[in-house]
């Protein structure tokens, strides 16, 4: 963590480290309070700044004043202005061009008056400087659609900013200001190293009140709100409107999160705030700084989580991994991945669920060839996949099997029929769509309880394509012969696939 331009009276060089400055301050403070200093030594406490060893509790700080003083110069208030076009102020263009009344009414429609009547909507937020040459991090929603962005520093100085790049998926934006001198800045810490219960400090511009500090603890980690790449730190440090984009500091003065959202019934802080973790933000910022955009890896599969029933139906030892429901044209298909594969490892790291896989793939360099381990029909298969780029990927529907004769019957609590051209037209399916169509269900049955509905198409059973009822019944019999308690179905709805495990008991 670096400190900023030194106080000439203190005689410190430019760019001295914040941790060194904080350590010096703490030692001098404790030296003045000799009784407390001796007490600390008697307990065997270290004066050095650093993370406590595992299992060692860290007491609440007496004050956040030293930390706030040393990082405040790098925290900024952000004001955005959006110009909203004015409505015509006069009677409008009532007469055709060249009319003798045109000049008379022109003064009622003075364009300069309309310019003056344009509304300039303003919004407030926060941010922080991450480099001496003026790069600033904030939330994307703070600066989205802004025509002008003004940065106010703790000293009162203001500078205009330009947008370098944004990432709506993580709600992060990178700005740049131009300055004749080096700017105070802060650095990212390791959010993964934070533990629930660690002390944190938030800074920003809540409700437009100006620079403000609040403190609390890490309430939870790895929170997901709605995005595929969410990795939020939950904190009870007060975060309000206007804090968006501001830093969440650890006790070393490193940024371990970007304050982004609150959970509140009334719009005010109730002690449930969320900061996007620094390990996510720093990767996004690096790409925005280098490319002006994000470049995330893309595997090219549709996936779903593995629950206990799916694990049993697939013969897996545990409900872990990401189950592949579809493999459109893309990197995974080229590498030989198949629908029904369960991805258990990616680039040497275990895959716990779909969320972890999406994060791992997105964090991997575009064009890199990575080893991927899948479970296929009970066997472990190793694949090498060269990743594409998510931002430019276009999924292509996979080809299906050939048409089968029509028939209808009751199976597993569902009324089913074989696909026909008439049904394809009725359901708005492609001419090549194949499978067994659900026409009706027993609402007391397992299929209805698992979310299957009329109009769904069963494309596979037991990871084998089914084109008619006979093929489905054959897979049911095979599963029972193998001692399975459930049968794995690949169900498509509006061309969106998912796997469903249906109980075979009593069928």
Automatic annotation (TrEMBL):
PROSITE patterns named among the record's database cross-references: PDZ
GO terms under biological process: proteolysis
Listed transmembrane segments: none
EC number from the UniProt entry: 3.4.21.107
Annotated PDZ domain residues: 288-353, 400-494
Substrates-to-products reaction catalysed: Acts on substrates that are at least partially unfolded. The cleavage site P1 residue is normally between a pair of hydrophobic residues, such as Val-|-Val
Annotated family: Belongs to the peptidase S1C family.
The protein's name: Probable periplasmic serine endoprotease DegP-like
Organism annotation: Mangrovicoccus algicola
